[in-house]
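Sharing a chain and its predicted structure for anyone who wants a worked example. Both blocks are below, sequence first, tokens second.
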Amino acid sequence: MTLGEIKYHVMYQTNNDADDIGDYTPHIVDYINEAYDRLVKVWDKKHTAFAKVDYPRLGDDTDTPLTPEWTHRYLADWATWLIYRNGNPQKQQRGYAYRESFEKMLSMVADEGGAAGLDEDGNPKQYKYFRNIPR
């Protein structure tokens, strides 16, 4: 997913019209990049600015996160949580499911070993226990 697609996914999850994205743009990109930094911290054991692979912040709508494709939609979950947490208690309650979804994904990445869990060809290494993670 590109940054633009992730932003529209956040708008969909928060029940906002895609035309209203301009009202959220300064913050929504920061929220997505916060999620991206947290993901890279688990994936590569470093923050985006200091990661082994060059993980620049996402800024242009055509930018794509440099993590596995299956993790991209979870960046929208974290941004959705951050939008909802600033609302009334009812909205905060709605946001907890998105926060939990993001945290579970981070846990799955950590369990698999992140980037260290791949062989030299980028394929998942075989582990002692089967882990049902979408690829």
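Comments welcome. Residues 37 and 48 are 5 Å apart (CA to CA).
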